[in-house]
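Handoff note, outgoing to incoming analyst
You'll be picking up this chain. Sequence as last confirmed:
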Amino acid sequence: MGLRRKGREIAMQALYGDDYDKQRVFDTLEQIGNDEQLASNSSIILFAKELVSGVLDNLEQIDRIIITKSKNWEFSRISPVDKALLRIGIFELLNTSVPRAVVINEAIEIAKVFSTVSSGKFINGILNQVEAD
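Most recent structure output, in case you need it:
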């Protein structure tokens, strides 16, 4: 598994849930970063922190996009894992130079591991609608 994939997974785990208290999220990141295997590679945690900060700083805009693009699906019914992956993916699509296909594929692959069978299609559908302005 690539370093950036692991960073995305860690960011998703830190953003899991609906209570996005910034301090709590960063405390979770620190706890994850103290893992023996991760402590030796700080670039993974730094990348995860970059993603988490970006999501938290743009949360309202990102959530508006999710609400707009998820037709026929209430925002409150989207699973916490899927929300976290969508938020990370939208942040990356709108604010980084990572190729669109890579962002979408990474979100789908992580969903296959941490979410439901149908999550990949749902995440793909939403992220494919997001256009960088």
